[in-house]
Fold:
Amino acid sequence: MHPFVKAAGGAAGVGGAALAYSAGYELRAFRLRKIEIPCLPEGASPLKVLHLSDIHLTPKQTKKSRWVQKLADLEPDLVINTGDNLAHRDSVHPLLESFGDLRGLPGVFVFGSNDYWGPVLKSPLRYLLPVESKKRFHGPPLPWRELRQAFLDLGWLDLNNSLGALTVNGSSITFAGVDDPHLEYDDLGAVAGPADASADVRLGITHAPYLRVLDALTTDGYDAIFAGHTHGGQLRLPGIGALVTNCDLDRRRSRGLSTHQVGGREAWLHVSAGLGTSPYAPYRFCCHPEATLVTLTPRQTTSPARPTM
Structure:
């Protein structure tokens, strides 16, 4: 056999094995990430925050639904949902069944593009293109009004281009949230202005961590910002990390905890790698689907940890 043919066959075999692992195992190997953010006043009781994002649920994804349902066993104090819940028009009821045991807990939500519009078939190579060069394709409309009402019935605050406030375990929290920046639905003017200095902690909520949103929320004095959208890169390579973020956030902050700095101010940034993918791109590599249990703790005097790949 010619050496080139042999090498090509070997590469194809490795690629096929990686694809089988990615789509056949890692896509459904759900994990819980646990982190701490020191942003509460001295002496405050820690708060357990369940951060959910990018579930992209279809009615037949029963394993994912059951896994999400068990997250209520963590007994979180607060739920933050950063959007892209749906991947099918009939997914609202299965999603609410997954969230059923979270009913009555304090919670907040914003929407992503896949709460408004269904996924569409497109070349997977487009995912690797710079975000500014991509033409946006809308799939069929999704029942976002039904989804919004379902979340309100759970007792969660709608933070799409809105401010909000909750008292959780004795700590006062103020929020600023924006509608999906990836679709340019965000209205930063609607939430502009200094964050409430009298609150114990100030949290910014967005689906997609575009720099314009992170800059605005950090400048206004929010202590921590929660986002999703990136899928953690969805495809990650050892030693390199995420290949893309699908927005203008740098790759090294594509998932997990980091910080954002602008104009001498600094905020914590937590980006969830999310629990799903588009049904038309059902793969993850070195990037397990995840939910995150974020424990808010009293502030420390040491400097925040720097992000890692």
About this structure: The longest helix spans residues 3-24. The first strand starts at residue 31 and ends at 40. The helical segments are 3-24, 62-69, 92-98, 113-116, 144-154, 211-219.
